[in-house]
What does this fold into?
Amino acid sequence: MTAVATAVDAAAQPADVTPGPNRRHLWLLSGIVAVAAALYAVVAASGGYSDYYAAAAKSMSTNWTAFAFGAFDPGATITLDKLSGFLLPQAISVRLFGFSPVALAIPQILEGLTTITATYFVVRQWVGSAGGLFAAAAMALTPVLAATFVHPMEDAMLTMCTVLAVLAWQRTVHRDGLRWLLLAGVLVAVGFQAKMMQAWLVLPAMAVTYFVISTTSLGRRIRNLIIALGATVACSFGWVTAIALVPPAARPFIDGTTNNNPFTMVIGYNGVNRFVAGLMPGTPMLPALPARASVDMAQVGLVPGLLGHTPLKFFIPVYAAQISWLFPLAAAGLVLAWIALKTGRPAVSDRRMLLAATLFSGVFVVTLLLVLGTMSLPHTAYLASMALPISGLSAIALVLLRKTLRLSSRLRFFPAIVAAVQTAWTVVLMTGYPGFAGWLIAPTLVIGSVVAIALLLIGRQARPQSRTARVAVALVAVVAMLGPAWWSFAMVNPRYAGTANDAYAGPQNAQTASIIAPPEGPYGVGLDSNRAVPQTAALESAIYDFSAARAAGDRYVLAVDSWRVSAPLIFSDRLRVLPIGGFTSRVPSPDLKTLRFLIAAKHLRYVVLTGVRSKNDVVNLNLDTIGAWVRSTCLVVPTTAYRSASLATVSAPDRLYDCVSAAVAVTATAGATAPNKLHPPQVPVVQHAERESEPESRT
It folds into this structure.
């Protein structure tokens, strides 16, 4: 704490805002943004779909009710199993430009370019324009982040909101204004709509740094933090509260819950239950991950219980190659900043800003390492949040390395050590992928060794020239970025561009590749995507078309027992589909009582059962009950009725049931009346884009 106190005492008055960047720096920043935009645009064309999220974006683009509630299906019968804020820009883009991988990726690209630009201004306030430019380039070419910005997933919006929140929060270092804290809190709350409580992981770093740096009174600091935190929490739960106030009969069922409570979905299913299963009641158990999606367990070798839930897993190739390239530089940034703050050497123009940068980045990265290291990570995209503090600390390191070279002390040799360690770490990561990066190992070793030796010689000089020091440190930056740049630019080859279900650039390591199937055409794998079996999806489209010709007047053409059947149908504008069971197949939406009501009211005629564990994850009471009733009450439609010659050889356990005869039996029972208020039918009316053929007689 001595260094902290010294830095604060040395800056009793707030520092002036850093002067604006000069034209040359703005041109360099524009070049970084332009290169990133070109790379992302090329990759976006082959970005593909995530069946689950892409279907929701399509549904939200066709129905304003689905848009408002974040529904998975066009009929808005059930929401996504998470907040849908990240999908709102995608739904608008699809509505404007049509449904395609590019339309889904446009919002992510814009979010990525905004993130890169904002990062420059954040880090520039800390260590100047040179550091800001490096941090912007690092954000543009960090593999996991580059892949996130070209695929439709939550983390792009989360990262953008986090960086913008930090940019607003920085003003409190200069002016101590409550309004800037409030703006930062609101931006964190917007990020909450994208990735829920992961957005809050930046709050400890903001709070600690503000508390230490602020020059206002202790009481005022505490008051401002309490007000800002309250505003953040209130805004974060704004949408959730609004949805909770809507009567259940007037909104979709909340996926990720068994009690139809949006707070259960956010706090339990997507929050505390990820750490302790069943901690919050009202949530369905998460299905066991299929082997090909269990990245953690595939990478931790013989001791998954040890490495899979500690920060050590970030040194495992599957994660390290995506986010860990700059670890040595980031660590050097922490060490050099601490020395500078404690001893005053090297001298910095604004100790207060350096303290703010070091405290914020250090607390933020430690928070992320602890939380993400403890939890299971089903997707590498979770690591995108780590890019900002790592890039910031690395920029601090490069700026202070140059200053350190001009010291007449033993610390002058520290840059050579950093260059050697950074080179060694880069080579270690490359050797894990010899077929992909083997050609780059020798040049990296040569350049890194030459730079380390040059820095050692420069450090022996009594008064090294400033230009020499700048060039040598710039080469350290080049060595550090060789690996992530190659991984990111490799995305122009779709083989190395990751999938829409997970963000990674470059190759998978051998162990992961052996358990993760390659994508089928433009569709990503993972989440047991139905598009991994295109023939099955084609058969289900034929089933829909057959049913639509005989149920054109019904609210729904089909009820299906898996979202994996629904998603490809929605893609192809077959919108009147009713999914059963939600994402986990464990959600009671609809239950048997509601399904029977729909059939009796002639809102539904056909039901598809895909077979035990074929496309639904589990067998559970709701699906068991519905399946048993359908099999015992409805009539099986012969497969010859909807199979064309091209589909004759497709093997699938799907069975189509005609429940028109069941409607007569249901009408005579209590199930023919509308369910009571505790179990209302989730059947909002949908405005269809097209009309199908006139219904045939139900006799």
About this structure: The chain has a mean pLDDT of 82. The first strand starts at residue 558 and ends at 560.
